[in-house]
Queue: 3 jobs
Job 1
Amino acid sequence: MPIRQLSESVVNRIAAGEVVERPASAVKELVENALDAGAHRIDVLTDGGGRRLIRVTDDGAGMTRADLALAVERHATSKLADDDLVSIRTLGFRGEALPSIGAVARLTMVTRHASEPHGWTIEVDAGTKSDVKPAPLNAGTRVEVRDLFYATPARLKFLKLDRTEAEVVREAVRRLAMSRPDVAFTLAGEERAPVTLPAALPGAAGRLARLGDVLGADFRANAVAIAAEREGIVIDGYAALPTLTRANALGQYLFVNGRPVRDKLLLGAVRAAYADYLPRDRHPLLALFVTLPAREVDVNVHPTKAEVRFRNAGLVRSLIVHALKSALARDGTRAASTGGTATIAAFRPAAAGTSRGWDWRRSPARPGGRFAQLPQRGFAEPAQAAFDTGMPAADVREAAHAAAETEGEVSAEALGHPLGAARAQVHETYIVAQTRDGLVIVDQHAAHERIVYEKIKAALEKSGVARQILLIPEIVELDEADVERLVARADELARYGLALEAFGLGAVALRETPSLLGEIDGSGLVRDLAEHMSEWDETLPLERRLMAVASSMACHGSVRAGRRLKPEEMNALLREMESTPNSGQCNHGRPTYVELKLADIERLFGRR
């Protein structure tokens, strides 16, 4: 077939396929144009998920009559002062956005520039342009897109349900709203209730307020400030505590020079920074903003500008990892406030008629119940034994009185600590501590697991993990494949004080264990390591794989649930938690403690 020149209409539709994949793509392009025009307020209205109508109204600079006529021509833009495509300082610069939308839909633009006596309008219907005509408008620009893809019916078959497309539009607006907290946004349509995001104050407080409006109050309450700078590259934003996570990575928002992106390099850096805090099936919530000179990043490597390419990708990645790790280490002793909120909610009685919560009608003490028939006696009488649920596993009050003349002297000193003073151990698993303004419930195994893990890491950085030689080597029987994996990594395991060697075809001999773990179940530890190694991704860095070994060892070397602790052991554990980095969560991302404020407890009993 001979080569031929395509018609202008076909070229425009091909360009539309690159730029306008779905209604959300058109919304993104139009909102970016409004932001580049200096808008302070942007209103977005959709109908049919954007298929029937998209209307974007802004109060930006607007366009003159001549500019409006050029705006719908291909490769025409006001966002490039010269022909330098390397230094892009605007969100959008591709000239084919508006004409591409007009090639597959009915496009109407009304705009007014401050220098014009009135507004102007132009229409583009499936690529056919009308003349520029006068139109009423106070200021800014209003763009309407009707019957999207009506000129290319085949594209309509690939669109999802209206509700699904509306949700994608909502997500596109959310991303742009997070990047510009100084701009007010309104999103409305028949598919949803109107969403209004007022303009926030400048600075970090305004940014956190906007992120809280978009990501929710839980994110705002559990956000950690991120800040780092090196060689002209600035990283800032907010990340949630490791105890506030999601089952997918959709809660990770990344921006480069104000542009929302889904870049694999940046997402990989986030995973690396949280590798020491979260299991593989949990993902953090964060909003990171990368700012760097325009010439240091290429934003034109993807048709929708969803990905970017950095001149010095290694520096950007390392800076992100450093910034996140530093911030998480700084606030690592905090636990997510959602744990306390959920605990308080669990105490509240459910609504009448529901099957959840306490119901007086099911109580043995109700009128006619079996306890109601008991003779009326005092609380000191034997009848009260019916209500006795047993004593705590360990009670600190007696020991506290024995060590001091008055309970007030003990409380004055111990309650000054962040995690307070241990008062009891319940179910031989949880430590209940009293603070000045509430109480703390600690998971003793999770807390000690993090402490041991951090000790192993610290020992590695100094002189290595000290070993203790077993008097009699422990023989552990395994599958031959597991034995091969363990023996192949014997040198790596030796760095952590774990010395083992092959013992026949289907077993290994464990000869040395880390001394800081004390007496442990060596065979259980070896089996866990073999199981984890079978799932290792060999592309992971060696450090990540070794940290997984340390995590398994810490789990086996920590205080187990079900062990009764002495009062001094409980308080010692609380003090170690306060001085240990990242003690707010265990190695698996679970919280180590839950804090209940006295004010919340008083609300439960109607005191507030």
Note: The first strand starts at residue 41 and ends at 47.
Job 2
Amino acid sequence: MTFTAMTVSTWVTLLASLSGVITLLYFLRLRRRQVEVPFSPLWRQVLLESQSNSLFRMLKRFISWLIQLIFLSLVLTALADPVFSGDTEISHSSEKDPESKHTLLLMDTSASMQAMMRGTTRFSIAQTKALEAINQRIPNEVFMLATAGRDVTTETGWTDNNESLKQVVRSLQTSDSTSNPVSWMQYARNATRGLPNARVVLITDQEFPPIDDDIARSIHLEVIQIDAREPAKHQNNVAIVDFIIRSHLGNSLKYAIYYKLKNTSPQTVTVDAYLHVDASGTARNHSDFISLPPVGTPARHTLAPGEEKTIERVSVDLSGVRAALVLDVQDIEDVLQVDNVAFSVIPERKTVQVALVGPRQMFVEAALKARNHVNVVHVPLQQWTNADGFDLVVFNGVTPNQAPQGNSIWLNTDSELPIPVNGTIPGGPLIVPSSQSQHPAMKYVRFIDLEPSRLLRVKAGRDDTVLARTKRGSRPAIVAHSDESARWLVVAFDPVESEWVAHYSFSVFFVNAINWFFEEESRLSRTLTLARPWNIQLHWPHRETVEITTPSGEEFTALVDDGGRIAFSGMEAGFYEIRASEVESNSLKTVAATMANAAESTLRAEGQYAPYVPRTPPEIRLDQVPKIFGAPAWQVLLLLALILTVIEWLTYNRRWTI
């Protein structure tokens, strides 16, 4: 026989303790009442009869004591819930220890779960499926609930409380991030490692590359699939997979817009692209921009089935700091809306104040003014004092008394500033090393038949970068330097004598140089994708934490590592504001985030997995449970205890046991 509700030692301890209390009560002597009688000799005979019956009375008290012990034994045994196991000895068995079962319920909250399906979202259907799975939980099974988008979040611990699990399921929401099954499987493996009878139940639309069969088997993966092989209309979708706004290279007052569209539906669609701009810098998400009027007329595009198209719009007038591109899809019912909007930070156009020190040089002035947000002021060397009021100083063949604090370009300057120069050497054909062809100052700069007759013999330091050199001899021709205090460029030959000024790359070089000095490329703030963790570089010194406000208005504190990068990745599309933690600081950085993932927008289920099967309760043979008249043992024991109580009450009233 096996006890399931308490251990044998507990049963014995309770029986012994309570039996001792009952026995002690029976040893207490009854206090006799004093009764006044008129003539005591009349009662002597009665007292003599009482003494002769004392042995019989003691026997009656023993029967009463024995009945109470039997009553106690029956009640305690009933509470222990006995089950006949076939063994001759009494033992204790816990239903949850050796045969307990663990189920990790993993719910897909990626962006594709927002797709509409039969008048509701896939995620709403997934919540219903999760509630059904919880209702099918068997008594010796515990659940743990987690949500899975790009990252995995634990929502509950291991629990057998169905109501708390259901409450959490009903409160869950989707994210705008994409699926990441690799991280899901790593999490599932760690969460179930070493647990008995563990399995993973994934509720998903399977919009991700197939999971490896060996990994699925190792974690006992079972899948509840949403939208399994649904009609094609449930896959109709048009998505923005890239969006960026940058400054127009030739006009500081205008911008160039680039975006990429993808049609995942099996039919040709027409799309109107609206551009919304926020001048106040307060709009954060889709609903904020929809309330703003669009800029100009929408651009109409036609996309063939499965087509991906890149669109470029140049010379666009924008007045604001934040922008959103919103699609209006014609011809089909677009089932997924989150990828119909993309966000971008509009780069700030800074007017750069440049001092051209030395003889007036029209070629250099023209190259500097290739972008009309540059204001050039000519300053003779004898009038030059310092760089106050200027963002960039260009020394054209002259040497100041000391190097300026800030950005500078040195053209054919024979001096010890900013790096040592030791005379001149013969020139020759120049090349841009392949390792430096992508340097911000050398993009699109190609030297064709550029052969200066002489070069300054410059000595590049350890922290300097050689951007151009001679084809033979590898003598430095253009050297760059960057540190926390300043950046500078040295051109070790005469642009006029070498006829570089007549080549297109001369103007491109100066345009690139200004971009590099003032980090206009970084100010493009390319839209971050929610498909991957972020790598946001901050240029604020000595920060350990920053405050982040999400598109929905939630606030978080994020750590900043030694390299100035923040440990944070958003999960919703829109604008994120990053501020220094110190109250007195005004540092602010705004970044835009968009789903921007063609795979997530395709809405096509992939892979085959074992389907979810509810567990069956542990089997108990009927012959193991003793029954009398169809009732379990504990109920029969309580009935017997009740019968003994009635007998005790009747005998007491009949004064048979006292």
Note: The two ends are 37 Å apart (CA to CA).
Job 3
Amino acid sequence: MKLSVIIVSYKVPYFLEQTLLSVQKAAQRVETEVIVVDNNSKDNSVDMVREKFSWVKLIANTDNTGFATANNQGIELATGEYILFLNPDTVVREDTFEQTVHFMEQYPQYGGLGVKMIDGTGIFLPESKRGFPSPEVAFYKTFGLSKLFPKSKRFNRYHLGYLDKDKNHDIDVLSGAFMLIPRKVLDEIGYWDEAFFMYGEDIDLSYRIIKGGYKNYYYADTTIIHYKGESTKKGSLNYVKTFYEAMIIFTQKHFQGSKAGLFVLMLQFAIYFRAFLTLLSNFIKNSSLFVLDALVVYGGLIVIKDIWAHIRFQEASYYDTNPTLMYFNFPFYILMWIGAIYLRGGYDKHARTTHVLTGALLGTVCITSIYALFPQELRSSRMLILLGTLWTIIGAYLNRSLVSLLQHNTIFWSTSQQRNVVIIGDGHESRRVLNLLHEAHVDFNFIGKIGTSTSNLEDSLGAIKDLDALTHFYKVNELIFCGKNISFEQIIHWMTRLGPGMNYKIVPKNSTYIIGSNSKNSAGDLYAVDISFNIANSIQQRNKQLLDIVYSLLLFVLSPLLVLFMKNRMGFLKNIALVLARKKTWVGYVPSSKNLDLPKLLTAVLTPIDTLKIKPTEEQTLHRINLFYAKDYTSSADFSIIIQALRDLGRQEVPTYVTPC
């Protein structure tokens, strides 16, 4: 056997399917065996591999052994002269295996090879080529100098930013996403170090390759897609902690003496320093608009009170004798307005003018409702509340226009970008993909299809060779590639050529999933399966969380009466506490192995099935019930289920309805 491809998989079934399809095509040019090691994904990954890729050697672990251990399991099973460690969220070109194996055969001095990688938006991933994390290199990375001077040979040795990404180079560190190593080299230097659970193990193996007298190589003549690049995780505190702890393991293993001790201390400091920066960055990113709105509204209220005092009492300083107005009333009003705008979705990524307007009005209703409960000395003019409402709407709109202008060069923040979609594929397959979009109720503007063959362009906008001109002319912003009709080499070529200004999606052959990656920095958007779930809407999610709290407080107040009707009285009180602690939700999914395909929800007390007299027992039926609950979710649906299944609110575990085989 010439090549063994080892893929360690964990909870990425849609990516894995596409990876295996690309591997299957690339393997036609090189004698290849494929080994998938699943680290207890608990989804349909294992079943999918068995059903669709029976030729794959599958190891299904019963727990998550970690990346290094799983790779070693694959090595033990491998028989290839060369071993490729490949991530399950990658797409390789048809010629990738042929080119890279041929290169390694020509140059035996190289013990490891990596390739050029792009993310799902066509952007080059800098982790394709890296240098060893010496104390100096780690210092520059920790304190952001490598990012500040990305092309500097001194400051950016970690990502070797001074080396041309489109040229081949000797490098220090290979990426574990694509690492090709001769079997004889692994037998000489040892396998993956299982002390590393995640991150750092590829650095360690690369270091041992060089210590063994070989070189590592960055091969830019072929490109792969790596959807979940390293950059997707950097906003996570867990990433910071895990990454630098892996660096400490690497340092303690390969450095000695006082130099090693100093390096470890620096890395330990880096954990807290980078964690602080991550928290600060996330806080600024998530709260800046809240703060800006609060300051603008507060400043506006100060001006409004003086203007109204002048109009109403002919004395601009009339309210200055009442300090509670400035230090109690105004902050309270702002809290109500901003809180209501938040609940209505006014701070979401795709907020609309109606969200701000209805949020401000809702806040005003809350203020006036509570206003009557204030003691006389805390009651200010109702006109200040009404004028404040108007200013809140105007100020919030202007703030978002300013932010939109700075970020997107347009003041029209409330106008959603229309999805101008072009499907690239032939005849039947392009129609199948179009039907998938319609069945998923996706809001899009279908421009047309582009043929992949010049001999069959009937009803097409044109041929794929003119894709750049066609996308410009028709103002296309989303391309969907039919994997059955177009090679992965062409897909990667066009993603690289058109760049990140376009959204890219791929429909694998015979698949019902549309896979893409529109945001490399958002872990929640690493792949897009275009099904519209109402429960995934951020406003609905917040409403569900808020109503969980409201229901819990109401049930607690009524608990002396309600416990008389409960099947499990102590369980009822315990569930109230668990829902308030965000450990459970009052209504959620029926237990099913297919729930991982749906938007995530907390463990449920009740489910839609509790309203049915006859309980279905087939897995597919249960999944459909969950699917429709998520797709058509409304707050009233939860309320109805709670009322109908009131006696079961003390239940500690939802019954499993699936009939045993």
Note: The domain at 420-525 is CATH 3.40.50.720 (Rossmann fold).
